[in-house]
Write a structure and sequence with these properties.
Blueprint (H helix, E strand, L loop, with lengths): L2 E6 L2 E6 L4 H7 L16 H4 L9 E4 L2 E4 L10 E2 L4 H15 L10 H10 L14 E2 L5 E4 L8 H9 L5 E3 L2 H5 L6 H9 L3 H9 L5 H7 L3 H4 L12 H11 L17 E5 L3 H12 L3 E5 L8 H4 L8 H13 L3 E3 L7 H6 L4 E4 L5 E2 L12 E3 H9 L9 E5 L3 H12 L4 E5 L11 H9 L3 E3 L2 E9 L2 E14 L5 E5 L5 E5 L1 E4 L3 E2 L29 E3 L2 H4 L4 H18 L36 H4 L12 H8 L8 E3 L5 H4 L6 H5 L5 E3 H6 L4 E6 L8 E7 L2 E7 L12 H5 L14 E4 L2 E4 L2 H12 L9 E3 L5 H14 L5 E3 L4
Helix pairs in contact: 7-8, 7-11, 7-22, 8-11, 9-11, 11-22, 12-20, 16-17
């Protein structure tokens, strides 16, 4: 290897060309702190700059740089302990400790860094409440201690080649589309809304819309609520969408044309998402929409006061800018014609736009309508005379929308009829609260049983309900109370008890319950080349679920067309996303502003206000950054294919993954180097000793045979050493009992017994400690002297 000369802290050093400053210093015995660097892994600062620990700073020509990603040059002068560097390292270490709820520093890495930096005030961090997991016999996972250095996951994937681990933050796992929520929140906290938007856009093409209408299942599992109040994750997404720049476009790539054509039926969130990603994969995509507008239920189901039309249209325009063609007012009733015209695949995303009837007498009156039809007409700008008194039947988000819209059409009183109590109401709590603030009356435990037309009035006969045993949804079943009927008068009654797909029979795809399209796990329908997803397969669901269905549909169709189905992308500019971070102080709980009721109930102006920059940054800094490491698909480690080599444990610098022996005994008194006795490979190990007992085995990173790796035997096979029943001297049976003997006595007995046996009477098993040369001699002895081929090795790999 060619060498060059550099200077570190005034010391001249010879090092190889192309190595990093960090590695050159370590080879020369000069310590530079770091928690994300690991031998054999590309620096995290190159792969994910915003997630690097930023502790390995050095000064070159007066400027701080990360030593792990800076390559040495001839005559480079490097300083590691200038006041500037030490101050920045302490600042960055404090930022890490603000999310590390421990001050015991149970690893050598942490103790060394604390000692080196001289940090005096350790920030107090709240306990995240994720707790310890002890489902593995060899080591413990303490998710509260994880700092997301990525070392365990990367070692498993890039060094061991097993790839059974993944990041499983509670909010991230809860997101149907898999948006990296902790990452974009952290970027907002670092005052980088553009980079945060790029993270969101890596998974969804509708960030602004989701920032307003997502049902945010991520917030339900937010660990922050155990301390004070859960994070406003949805509104932070909205802030990134509203305030972020378009820097993400620079890294958004549309692949060259594949020559394949795909038809997408339905311009809703599922269809448009599928079309977007298929276009980026190089396919020619045309979206056919029966309505006069695109957006599906986002446009004709969700009122404008929740999702402004300009926000939605801007995101649809972004999809067409990528190359998607949208044909409006075009209803497709035959898939055969599409295939005849040259389409290679079809995606059905027709949604669930057909309302479900109440199933009671009198509901065919002109003033009784279903919510899907009512909201569609209202959202398309049709003037609807609802009268002064409006009744709505239902308890979901659609029912709330159907109740709030009539106020904006001139109604003076709106009453919502729901057959269960508020505790069972499926609508989002904030939507219910908004309706109540607009003076919408909610009659719980009430169900309509008959509608009578009386001149211009609707007399709705209702009955009181009580809750019985739970039904299949898990909610207690409403049971009518005898002789509790009463009458309510309305001008208009809107049924909002659900919708179902309207799938024409001419499409010739198999449908199931509720007329939903039947699909397999890959989104395939009963017809070759036809895929489906979204509300038309699942029934009415959420925008984020539909987007996820669109992503999966795009992947499946690309694979069907001969591609790999790979739609993942990194949209953050590595240079733009890195900066030396300042001290991050935890913010206060954000309060959300709304238009005053008197200013909103007579128009469709957006009700909820977005966060201002200072508020969003403060809110983002409340995030606990709950890092959880799990197996792929969250199955048990053994089922996931874990070899229990312990490489992930050895890679963890902060004690989030720790051997059970260490958790019981603490740090070692001394370390002894040895060779693993379990097989003849010759793996070099470092045995950590405390009170003359081995408490931990760490593969030696400099071991020529194993280079810091070991198998399950070498890593965790130390239990027998500490076992009180372990044999420490030979035993010879005399008069029916084993008695202790010396090694010469035992060997002499064995040699004398050999002469009694030959051929198939004899078998040999060589020791795990035998070298290759010793094994060779052993097999020669067995075959030539003992005249048998019955020989094996007790730890044969």
């Amino acid at each position: 290897m060619d060498t060059i000369t550099i200077s570190i802290n005034g010391q001249k050093i010879q090092t190889g060309k192309g190595v990093s400053v960090f590695d050159a210093a370590r080879e020369a015995g000069i310590y530079i702190p770091g928690l994300c660097s690991y031998p054999g892994l590309e620096p995290l600062s190159k792969k994910m700059p915003d997630q690097a620990c930023r502790l390995c700073l050095v000064e070159i020509k007066g400027k701080p740089v990360l030593s792990c990603s800076t390559t040495v040059l001839e005559n480079m002068v490097i300083e590691t302990k200038t006041p500037q560097i030490m101050e920045l390292q302490v600042r960055n270490l404090k930022a890490i400790f603000r999310r590390y709820p421990s001050t015991c520093f149970c690893t050598n890495d942490l103790q060394e860094i604390v000692k080196y930096t001289g940090i005096k005030e350790i920030p107090v961090s709240p306990v995240k409440g994720l707790g310890k997991v002890e489902d593995i016999p060899f080591f413990i996972r303490d998710h509260d201690l994880c700092i997301l250095c990525h070392r365990c996951v990367r070692v498993c994937e890039e060094i061991r080649g097993i790839s059974i681990l993944k990041y499983a933050w509670p909010c991230h796992v809860a997101c149907p589309a898999g948006i990296d929520i902790p990452r974009y929140i952290r970027l907002i906290g670092e005052e980088k809304p553009g980079a945060a938007l790029a993270v969101i856009r890596e998974k969804v093409p509708f960030p602004g819309s989701l920032g307003r209408v997502c049902t945010h299942p991520c917030e339900d599992v937010c660990q922050r609520k155990k301390i004070d109040k859960k994070m406003h994750i949805r509104l932070l997404k909205r802030f990134a969408a509203d305030c972020g720049d378009d820097s993400w476009r620079k890294r958004s790539i549309v692949l060259p044309s594949t020559g394949k054509r795909v038809a997408v039926i339905g311009a809703g969130p599922a269809g448009l998402t599928a079309a977007f990603y298929l276009t980026k994969l190089g396919h020619e995509v045309t979206v056919f929409e029966a309505l006069s507008v695109s957006g599906g239920m986002m446009r004709v189901g969700i009122p404008e006061y929740r999702l402004p039309r300009d926000i939605l249209q801007d995101e649809i325009d972004e999809i067409t800018r990528a190359g998607v063609e949208i044909k409006l007012n075009t209803k497709i009733e035959s898939l055969d014609k599409l295939f005849e015209d040259g389409c290679n695949a079809v995606f059905l995303g027709v949604g669930a736009h057909k309302g479900i009837k109440l199933g009671i007498d009198g509901e065919d009156q002109p003033c009784v309508m279903d919510s899907a039809d009512f909201l569609r007409r209202a959202n398309l700008g049709e003037k609807i005379d609802v009268g002064e008194r409006v009744g709505v039947v239902g308890g979901g988000n659609v029912a709330i929308d159907a109740a709030r819209v009539p106020l904006r059409l001139g109604a003076k009183k709106v009453t919502l009829l729901y057959r269960r109590t508020g505790a069972e109401m499926p609508a989002n709590p904030e939507e219910i609260e908004a309706a109540l603030k607009e003076n919408i009356e909610i009659l719980y435990l009430t169900a309509p049983v008959k509608i009578i037309k009386d001149d211009d009035l609707l007399k709705v006969e209702c009955i009181r309900m009580e809750l019985g045993e739970p039904d299949e949804s898990g909610r207690r079943r409403p049971v009518p109370i005898k002789n509790s009927e009463f009458i309510i008068e309305f001008d208009t009654l809107i049924a909002a008890i659900g919708q179902r797909p309207d799938v024409p029979e001419e499409l010739k795809v198999e449908t199931g319950w509720g007329n939903s399209v039947k699909i397999d796990d890959n989104g395939k329908t009963s017809r070759e080349g036809v895929f489906s997803g979204g509300d038309c397969t699942s029934g009415p669901s959420t925008v984020i679920a539909a987007i996820d269905a669109g992503r999966k549909g795009a992947q499946a169709i690309d694979q069907f067309l001969g591609g790999e189905g790979y739609i993942e992308e990194s949209l953050i500019d590595p240079n733009a996303s890195y900066q030396i971070r300042e001290d991050i102080n935890e913010g206060e709980i954000a309060s959300i502003d709304f238009l005053p009721v008197e200013n909103r109930i007579h128009n469709f102006d957006e009700v909820e206000s977005g966060m201002e920059e200072k508020t969003a940054i403060a809110e983002a800094r409340r995030c606990l950054q709950c890092h959880v490491i799990s197996t792929v698909d969250a199955v048990p480690y053994e089922e996931a294919g874990c070899r229990f080599c312990g490489a992930c444990v050895d890679a963890c610098p902060v004690g989030a993954l720790m051997e059970r022996s260490i958790s019981c005994h603490g740090l070692p008194d001394r370390t002894v180097s040895t060779i693993c006795p379990y097989c003849g490979t010759g793996c070099q190990l470092n045995l950590e000793i405390k009170n003359n007992k081995i408490i931990r085995v760490e593969p030696d990173i400099n071991g020529p045979a194993n280079k810091g790796q070991a198998c399950v035997k070498g890593k965790f096979g130390l239990d027998f050493v500490n076992d009180p029943n372990r044999l420490t001297t030979p035993l010879i049976k005399k008069n029916g009992k084993f008695e202790e003997a010396s090694w010469p006595e035992a060997l002499d007995l064995v040699s004398r017994q050999f002469s009694k046996y030959k051929g198939d009477q004899f078998a040999a098993v060589s020791s795990a400690k035998c070298s290759n040369e010793e094994n060779y001699v052993m097999q020669k002895f067995t075959r030539m002297v003992m005249e048998t081929n019955s020989i094996d090795h007790c730890a044969r790999l």
